[in-house]
Amino acid sequence: MNARGVVFVHSSPTAVCPHVEWAISGVLGTKVSLHWTPQAAVSGQLRTECTWSGSVGSGGAIAGALRAWPMLRFEVTEEPTPGVDGERFCHVPALGLWRGRTSANGDIVIGEDQLRTLMAETPVAQLPAKMNELLGTRWDEALEPLRLAGDGAPVTWLHQVG
Fold it and tell me: What pTM, to 2 d.p., does this model score?
């Protein structure tokens, strides 16, 4: 079954850009050449975004491959497919990697078991902070200025070799 999604590399040092392309190429099994533009929110950094299609789970594999460069700020999404939830991965150097399940419209989905565990193990005063952690709030706050700086940037389309 095929899935699709988007990779947003919000900031990368110039020297790391070819490594990002090689990492994505390795996951999708096809040569990837991305269009890099300056990241206006971070001086001396570049940004890119691309859509991808590949096997289910490719989004997680791409995020895992990109983690090899801890200085990157990136997001990888995988849209839901029949019987499989969507996912979003966010990486910020100071925070590490965050993963969330997504609904068809892109909302973060928190599972029943996660909520029950949270309510059973978390003091009431700490619930808002723990909920924000599950929702990836700190990652969204860190990435939002970089997202806005990329509005109107070109997008590359990628497809996995089958």
Answer: 0.89
